[in-house]
Specification:
The chain is mainly alpha-helical. It is built from 12 helices and 12 strands. It has 2 domains: 169 residues, Glycosyltransferase, CATH 1.50.10.10; 160 residues, Alpha/alpha barrel (Glycosyltransferase), CATH 1.50.10. Helices cover 56% and strands 7% of the residues. It has a 3-stranded antiparallel sheet with strand order 1-2-3. It has a 3-stranded antiparallel sheet with strand order 8-9-10.
Length: 406
Protein backbone atom coordinates (compact mmCIF):
# COMPACT_ATOMS: atom_id res chain seq x y z
CA UNK A 1 0.00 0.00 0.00
CA UNK A 2 2.82 2.42 0.86
CA UNK A 3 4.54 1.69 -2.46
CA UNK A 4 1.34 2.36 -4.41
CA UNK A 5 0.71 5.60 -2.51
CA UNK A 6 4.23 6.86 -3.19
CA UNK A 7 3.97 5.93 -6.87
CA UNK A 8 0.72 7.88 -7.19
CA UNK A 9 2.27 10.82 -5.34
CA UNK A 10 5.28 10.80 -7.65
CA UNK A 11 3.16 10.58 -10.79
CA UNK A 12 0.98 13.49 -9.68
CA UNK A 13 4.08 15.63 -9.15
CA UNK A 14 5.55 14.62 -12.50
CA UNK A 15 2.29 15.47 -14.25
CA UNK A 16 2.24 18.94 -12.68
CA UNK A 17 5.84 19.53 -13.67
CA UNK A 18 5.51 18.34 -17.26
CA UNK A 19 1.99 19.55 -18.07
CA UNK A 20 1.76 22.86 -16.24
CA UNK A 21 4.98 24.36 -14.89
CA UNK A 22 7.43 23.51 -17.67
CA UNK A 23 5.11 24.47 -20.56
CA UNK A 24 4.33 27.79 -18.87
CA UNK A 25 7.96 28.82 -18.52
CA UNK A 26 9.02 27.40 -21.88
CA UNK A 27 6.26 29.06 -23.85
CA UNK A 28 5.42 32.26 -21.99
CA UNK A 29 8.44 33.61 -20.12
CA UNK A 30 10.83 34.66 -22.89
CA UNK A 31 10.79 38.31 -23.95
CA UNK A 32 10.74 38.29 -27.78
CA UNK A 33 10.94 42.08 -28.05
CA UNK A 34 13.70 43.14 -25.66
CA UNK A 35 15.53 39.87 -25.02
CA UNK A 36 15.92 37.72 -21.99
CA UNK A 37 12.74 37.15 -20.01
CA UNK A 38 9.68 39.21 -19.20
CA UNK A 39 9.82 41.19 -15.98
CA UNK A 40 6.16 41.07 -14.99
CA UNK A 41 3.01 39.10 -15.74
CA UNK A 42 -0.25 39.66 -13.90
CA UNK A 43 -2.30 36.86 -12.44
CA UNK A 44 -4.50 36.67 -15.55
CA UNK A 45 -1.52 36.41 -17.91
CA UNK A 46 -1.25 40.05 -18.99
CA UNK A 47 2.39 40.96 -19.67
CA UNK A 48 3.93 44.32 -18.78
CA UNK A 49 6.53 44.54 -21.53
CA UNK A 50 8.21 47.56 -19.93
CA UNK A 51 8.56 46.15 -16.43
CA UNK A 52 12.06 46.14 -14.90
CA UNK A 53 13.97 42.87 -14.90
CA UNK A 54 15.38 41.55 -11.65
CA UNK A 55 18.51 39.57 -10.90
CA UNK A 56 16.60 37.11 -8.73
CA UNK A 57 14.11 36.10 -11.42
CA UNK A 58 16.76 35.80 -14.13
CA UNK A 59 19.16 33.80 -11.94
CA UNK A 60 16.33 31.51 -10.89
CA UNK A 61 15.34 30.97 -14.51
CA UNK A 62 18.96 30.03 -15.26
CA UNK A 63 19.00 27.59 -12.36
CA UNK A 64 15.63 26.12 -13.34
CA UNK A 65 16.40 25.26 -16.94
CA UNK A 66 19.85 23.98 -16.03
CA UNK A 67 18.29 21.70 -13.41
CA UNK A 68 15.58 20.60 -15.83
CA UNK A 69 18.23 19.68 -18.41
CA UNK A 70 20.00 17.54 -15.83
CA UNK A 71 16.65 15.85 -15.14
CA UNK A 72 15.70 15.38 -18.79
CA UNK A 73 18.13 16.11 -21.60
CA UNK A 74 15.70 18.18 -23.63
CA UNK A 75 17.39 20.68 -25.92
CA UNK A 76 14.62 23.20 -25.28
CA UNK A 77 15.93 23.46 -21.73
CA UNK A 78 19.42 23.97 -23.09
CA UNK A 79 18.21 26.85 -25.27
CA UNK A 80 16.42 28.54 -22.37
CA UNK A 81 19.37 28.10 -20.01
CA UNK A 82 21.73 29.63 -22.56
CA UNK A 83 19.29 32.49 -23.11
CA UNK A 84 19.32 33.20 -19.38
CA UNK A 85 23.10 32.80 -19.09
CA UNK A 86 23.76 35.19 -21.99
CA UNK A 87 21.29 37.80 -20.77
CA UNK A 88 22.74 37.82 -17.26
CA UNK A 89 26.30 38.09 -18.58
CA UNK A 90 25.42 40.81 -21.08
CA UNK A 91 23.07 43.02 -19.06
CA UNK A 92 23.48 42.24 -15.36
CA UNK A 93 27.24 41.81 -15.08
CA UNK A 94 29.10 44.92 -13.95
CA UNK A 95 32.18 45.10 -16.16
CA UNK A 96 33.63 47.98 -14.11
CA UNK A 97 33.41 46.61 -10.56
CA UNK A 98 32.36 42.99 -10.95
CA UNK A 99 29.28 41.28 -9.62
CA UNK A 100 25.70 41.51 -10.83
CA UNK A 101 23.35 44.49 -10.73
CA UNK A 102 20.19 44.05 -8.70
CA UNK A 103 17.84 45.31 -11.41
CA UNK A 104 17.87 46.49 -15.03
CA UNK A 105 15.14 48.21 -17.03
CA UNK A 106 13.13 46.49 -19.75
CA UNK A 107 15.86 47.25 -22.29
CA UNK A 108 18.62 45.87 -20.08
CA UNK A 109 20.11 49.11 -18.74
CA UNK A 110 21.06 49.22 -15.03
CA UNK A 111 18.32 50.62 -12.75
CA UNK A 112 19.53 49.49 -9.34
CA UNK A 113 23.28 48.90 -9.39
CA UNK A 114 23.62 47.75 -5.77
CA UNK A 115 25.37 44.47 -5.04
CA UNK A 116 22.80 42.81 -2.80
CA UNK A 117 24.47 39.67 -1.49
CA UNK A 118 21.24 37.68 -1.65
CA UNK A 119 21.24 38.28 -5.40
CA UNK A 120 24.92 37.45 -5.82
CA UNK A 121 24.24 34.18 -3.98
CA UNK A 122 21.54 33.21 -6.44
CA UNK A 123 23.86 34.01 -9.33
CA UNK A 124 26.43 31.59 -7.89
CA UNK A 125 23.73 28.99 -7.29
CA UNK A 126 22.57 29.24 -10.90
CA UNK A 127 26.06 29.29 -12.43
CA UNK A 128 27.03 26.17 -10.49
CA UNK A 129 23.91 24.39 -11.73
CA UNK A 130 24.59 25.54 -15.29
CA UNK A 131 28.12 24.14 -15.06
CA UNK A 132 26.82 20.80 -13.76
CA UNK A 133 24.38 20.62 -16.67
CA UNK A 134 26.53 21.84 -19.54
CA UNK A 135 30.13 22.22 -18.36
CA UNK A 136 32.26 25.08 -19.62
CA UNK A 137 35.04 26.96 -17.87
CA UNK A 138 33.45 30.44 -18.20
CA UNK A 139 30.53 29.50 -15.93
CA UNK A 140 32.63 28.11 -13.11
CA UNK A 141 35.15 30.95 -13.38
CA UNK A 142 32.34 33.49 -13.16
CA UNK A 143 30.91 31.74 -10.10
CA UNK A 144 34.34 31.77 -8.45
CA UNK A 145 34.74 35.47 -9.26
CA UNK A 146 31.41 36.32 -7.58
CA UNK A 147 32.41 34.19 -4.59
CA UNK A 148 35.69 36.11 -4.24
CA UNK A 149 33.85 39.45 -4.41
CA UNK A 150 31.48 38.40 -1.64
CA UNK A 151 34.29 37.09 0.54
CA UNK A 152 36.49 40.16 0.07
CA UNK A 153 33.78 42.77 0.53
CA UNK A 154 30.79 41.43 2.46
CA UNK A 155 32.22 38.97 4.95
CA UNK A 156 32.38 40.23 8.54
CA UNK A 157 35.84 39.20 9.67
CA UNK A 158 35.19 40.27 13.27
CA UNK A 159 31.81 38.74 14.15
CA UNK A 160 31.31 36.31 11.29
CA UNK A 161 28.64 36.17 8.64
CA UNK A 162 27.92 38.57 5.79
CA UNK A 163 26.67 42.13 5.49
CA UNK A 164 23.47 42.45 3.47
CA UNK A 165 24.13 45.08 0.80
CA UNK A 166 27.07 46.75 -0.91
CA UNK A 167 27.06 49.66 -3.32
CA UNK A 168 28.14 49.23 -6.92
CA UNK A 169 31.79 49.71 -5.93
CA UNK A 170 31.42 47.03 -3.21
CA UNK A 171 31.66 49.40 -0.26
CA UNK A 172 29.00 48.61 2.35
CA UNK A 173 25.77 50.50 1.61
CA UNK A 174 23.92 52.74 4.07
CA UNK A 175 20.51 51.24 3.28
CA UNK A 176 20.83 47.52 3.99
CA UNK A 177 17.29 46.42 3.16
CA UNK A 178 16.74 43.69 0.61
CA UNK A 179 13.22 45.00 -0.02
CA UNK A 180 10.86 47.58 1.46
CA UNK A 181 9.31 45.06 3.86
CA UNK A 182 12.66 44.13 5.42
CA UNK A 183 14.43 45.67 8.39
CA UNK A 184 17.45 47.90 7.86
CA UNK A 185 19.88 45.64 9.72
CA UNK A 186 23.33 44.40 8.79
CA UNK A 187 22.56 40.68 8.82
CA UNK A 188 19.60 38.45 8.08
CA UNK A 189 18.67 34.82 8.16
CA UNK A 190 17.41 34.95 4.56
CA UNK A 191 20.70 36.21 3.16
CA UNK A 192 22.68 33.54 5.01
CA UNK A 193 20.26 30.78 4.03
CA UNK A 194 20.79 31.43 0.35
CA UNK A 195 24.53 31.87 0.72
CA UNK A 196 24.52 28.43 2.37
CA UNK A 197 22.52 27.11 -0.57
CA UNK A 198 24.81 28.76 -3.14
CA UNK A 199 28.06 27.70 -1.49
CA UNK A 200 26.73 24.14 -1.23
CA UNK A 201 26.12 24.02 -4.97
CA UNK A 202 29.46 25.69 -5.71
CA UNK A 203 31.34 23.20 -3.50
CA UNK A 204 29.93 20.36 -5.61
CA UNK A 205 31.92 21.60 -8.60
CA UNK A 206 34.80 23.33 -6.81
CA UNK A 207 35.91 21.56 -3.59
CA UNK A 208 38.12 24.43 -2.52
CA UNK A 209 39.58 24.43 1.02
CA UNK A 210 38.54 28.00 1.83
CA UNK A 211 35.05 27.44 0.41
CA UNK A 212 34.72 24.40 2.66
CA UNK A 213 35.64 26.55 5.66
CA UNK A 214 33.09 29.21 4.70
CA UNK A 215 30.33 26.66 4.16
CA UNK A 216 31.11 25.12 7.54
CA UNK A 217 30.98 28.59 9.13
CA UNK A 218 27.60 29.23 7.55
CA UNK A 219 26.31 25.96 8.98
CA UNK A 220 27.63 26.92 12.42
CA UNK A 221 25.96 30.32 12.15
CA UNK A 222 22.61 28.64 11.62
CA UNK A 223 23.14 26.25 14.52
CA UNK A 224 24.58 28.75 17.00
CA UNK A 225 23.37 32.21 15.94
CA UNK A 226 20.24 32.12 13.78
CA UNK A 227 18.29 29.30 15.43
CA UNK A 228 16.42 30.48 18.50
CA UNK A 229 17.35 27.85 21.07
CA UNK A 230 14.16 28.35 23.11
CA UNK A 231 11.53 28.27 20.36
CA UNK A 232 13.42 26.30 17.70
CA UNK A 233 12.46 28.82 15.02
CA UNK A 234 14.86 30.85 12.91
CA UNK A 235 15.26 34.49 13.90
CA UNK A 236 15.14 36.89 10.96
CA UNK A 237 17.24 40.01 11.53
CA UNK A 238 20.38 40.73 13.53
CA UNK A 239 22.78 43.55 14.24
CA UNK A 240 26.47 43.34 13.51
CA UNK A 241 27.17 41.29 16.67
CA UNK A 242 24.34 38.81 16.01
CA UNK A 243 21.90 40.26 18.53
CA UNK A 244 18.36 39.43 17.30
CA UNK A 245 16.34 42.43 16.16
CA UNK A 246 13.06 40.76 15.22
CA UNK A 247 10.64 38.41 16.92
CA UNK A 248 8.64 37.04 14.01
CA UNK A 249 9.35 33.87 12.07
CA UNK A 250 8.17 32.47 8.74
CA UNK A 251 7.35 28.80 8.57
CA UNK A 252 8.48 28.61 4.95
CA UNK A 253 12.02 29.62 5.86
CA UNK A 254 12.04 27.20 8.80
CA UNK A 255 11.08 24.22 6.65
CA UNK A 256 13.25 25.27 3.70
CA UNK A 257 16.28 25.60 5.97
CA UNK A 258 15.61 22.16 7.41
CA UNK A 259 16.52 20.40 4.18
CA UNK A 260 19.09 22.91 2.88
CA UNK A 261 21.12 22.39 6.06
CA UNK A 262 21.08 18.65 5.40
CA UNK A 263 22.16 19.28 1.80
CA UNK A 264 25.13 21.33 3.04
CA UNK A 265 26.06 18.58 5.50
CA UNK A 266 25.91 16.01 2.71
CA UNK A 267 28.48 17.80 0.54
CA UNK A 268 30.72 18.55 3.55
CA UNK A 269 30.64 14.83 4.43
CA UNK A 270 31.46 15.38 8.10
CA UNK A 271 29.87 13.06 10.69
CA UNK A 272 29.55 15.76 13.34
CA UNK A 273 27.93 18.25 10.97
CA UNK A 274 25.64 15.55 9.58
CA UNK A 275 24.43 14.66 13.06
CA UNK A 276 23.81 18.31 13.92
CA UNK A 277 22.03 18.93 10.61
CA UNK A 278 19.69 16.01 11.16
CA UNK A 279 18.88 17.22 14.67
CA UNK A 280 18.15 20.73 13.41
CA UNK A 281 16.13 19.47 10.44
CA UNK A 282 13.89 17.23 12.50
CA UNK A 283 13.24 19.92 15.08
CA UNK A 284 12.38 22.51 12.42
CA UNK A 285 10.17 20.05 10.54
CA UNK A 286 8.35 18.95 13.70
CA UNK A 287 7.70 22.54 14.77
CA UNK A 288 6.41 23.44 11.30
CA UNK A 289 4.17 20.39 11.23
CA UNK A 290 2.80 21.07 14.70
CA UNK A 291 2.37 24.84 14.54
CA UNK A 292 1.75 25.76 10.91
CA UNK A 293 0.20 22.94 8.86
CA UNK A 294 -3.60 23.01 8.83
CA UNK A 295 -5.71 19.89 8.55
CA UNK A 296 -6.31 20.62 4.86
CA UNK A 297 -2.56 20.66 4.15
CA UNK A 298 -2.21 24.43 3.84
CA UNK A 299 0.84 26.00 5.46
CA UNK A 300 0.31 29.26 7.35
CA UNK A 301 2.78 31.99 6.49
CA UNK A 302 4.03 33.67 9.65
CA UNK A 303 4.03 33.40 13.43
CA UNK A 304 5.28 35.10 16.56
CA UNK A 305 5.45 33.89 20.16
CA UNK A 306 3.73 30.59 19.30
CA UNK A 307 0.78 32.35 17.63
CA UNK A 308 -0.11 32.54 13.94
CA UNK A 309 0.16 36.16 12.80
CA UNK A 310 -0.46 35.57 9.08
CA UNK A 311 -2.66 32.56 8.23
CA UNK A 312 -2.51 33.10 4.46
CA UNK A 313 -0.64 30.63 2.29
CA UNK A 314 1.98 31.59 -0.27
CA UNK A 315 3.26 29.38 -3.05
CA UNK A 316 6.88 29.15 -1.94
CA UNK A 317 6.42 28.04 1.71
CA UNK A 318 3.83 25.54 0.53
CA UNK A 319 6.33 24.17 -2.00
CA UNK A 320 9.20 24.02 0.48
CA UNK A 321 7.04 22.19 3.03
CA UNK A 322 6.70 19.23 0.66
CA UNK A 323 10.48 18.80 0.39
CA UNK A 324 11.11 19.55 4.06
CA UNK A 325 8.60 16.98 5.27
CA UNK A 326 9.92 14.37 2.84
CA UNK A 327 13.44 15.04 4.08
CA UNK A 328 12.26 14.59 7.68
CA UNK A 329 10.61 11.30 6.75
CA UNK A 330 13.82 10.06 5.13
CA UNK A 331 15.75 10.94 8.29
CA UNK A 332 13.30 9.54 10.81
CA UNK A 333 10.99 7.03 9.17
CA UNK A 334 8.12 8.82 10.92
CA UNK A 335 5.06 8.33 8.69
CA UNK A 336 3.49 11.57 9.95
CA UNK A 337 6.08 13.48 7.90
CA UNK A 338 5.30 11.51 4.73
CA UNK A 339 1.60 12.10 5.26
CA UNK A 340 2.26 15.82 5.80
CA UNK A 341 4.21 16.03 2.53
CA UNK A 342 1.34 14.36 0.68
CA UNK A 343 -1.23 16.69 2.25
CA UNK A 344 0.87 19.75 1.43
CA UNK A 345 1.16 18.60 -2.18
CA UNK A 346 -2.55 17.90 -2.43
CA UNK A 347 -3.20 21.45 -1.25
CA UNK A 348 -0.94 22.79 -4.00
CA UNK A 349 -2.71 20.72 -6.64
CA UNK A 350 -6.15 21.76 -5.43
CA UNK A 351 -5.65 25.46 -4.68
CA UNK A 352 -2.37 26.79 -6.10
CA UNK A 353 -2.12 25.21 -9.55
CA UNK A 354 -3.80 27.61 -11.99
CA UNK A 355 -5.60 25.33 -14.41
CA UNK A 356 -6.74 28.23 -16.59
CA UNK A 357 -3.69 30.48 -17.00
CA UNK A 358 -0.91 28.14 -15.92
CA UNK A 359 1.76 28.15 -13.19
CA UNK A 360 0.80 28.66 -9.52
CA UNK A 361 -0.99 31.48 -7.75
CA UNK A 362 1.16 33.63 -5.48
CA UNK A 363 -1.12 33.46 -2.45
CA UNK A 364 -4.40 31.96 -1.34
CA UNK A 365 -6.32 32.73 1.84
CA UNK A 366 -7.19 30.18 4.49
CA UNK A 367 -10.24 29.09 2.50
CA UNK A 368 -8.12 28.50 -0.63
CA UNK A 369 -9.26 31.58 -2.55
CA UNK A 370 -6.41 33.04 -4.68
CA UNK A 371 -5.38 36.68 -4.46
CA UNK A 372 -5.88 38.07 -8.00
CA UNK A 373 -3.78 41.17 -7.30
CA UNK A 374 -0.51 39.28 -6.97
CA UNK A 375 1.54 38.65 -10.15
CA UNK A 376 2.18 35.32 -11.79
CA UNK A 377 5.70 36.43 -12.78
CA UNK A 378 7.75 39.16 -11.12
CA UNK A 379 11.17 39.87 -9.67
CA UNK A 380 10.20 37.56 -6.78
CA UNK A 381 7.82 35.14 -8.52
CA UNK A 382 9.67 32.67 -10.71
CA UNK A 383 9.97 28.93 -11.38
CA UNK A 384 12.60 28.11 -8.75
CA UNK A 385 10.48 27.02 -5.78
CA UNK A 386 7.80 25.22 -7.78
CA UNK A 387 10.05 23.40 -10.24
CA UNK A 388 12.65 22.56 -7.60
CA UNK A 389 9.96 21.08 -5.36
CA UNK A 390 8.84 18.83 -8.21
CA UNK A 391 12.38 17.70 -9.03
CA UNK A 392 13.28 17.11 -5.38
CA UNK A 393 10.03 15.29 -4.65
CA UNK A 394 10.39 12.94 -7.62
CA UNK A 395 14.00 12.19 -6.66
CA UNK A 396 13.26 11.63 -2.98
CA UNK A 397 10.24 9.43 -3.61
CA UNK A 398 12.40 7.28 -5.88
CA UNK A 399 14.96 6.99 -3.07
CA UNK A 400 12.26 6.02 -0.59
CA UNK A 401 10.83 3.28 -2.80
CA UNK A 402 14.34 1.99 -3.59
CA UNK A 403 15.20 1.84 0.12
CA UNK A 404 11.94 0.08 0.97
CA UNK A 405 12.48 -2.55 -1.73
CA UNK A 406 15.96 -3.48 -0.48
Amino acid sequence: MLYETIQQFSQAVRNELENNLVPFWLERSADPEYGGFIGQMSNDGTIDSRAPKGLILNARVLWTFSALYRFNKDNRYLDMARRAYDYLETHFWDHSHGGAFWQVDFQGHPMDDKKKIYGQAFYIYALAEYFQAFGGDPAIKLAMQVYDLIENNSRDKTYGGYIEVCNRDWFVAEDLRLSDKDMDEKKSMNNHLHLLEAYTNLYRIWPDTQLRERLTELFDIFDWRITDQASGHLNHFFDETWQPKSGNYTFGHDIEASWLLCEAAEVLDDLNITSRAQRLALRLARITLTEALDEDGGLCYEGRAEKITDPNRQWWPQAESVVGFLNAYELSGDRSFLEAAQKAWDFIAKYFADKKNGEWFWRVDRSGCPDPTEPKVSQWKGPYHSVRTCLETIRRLQQITSADSN
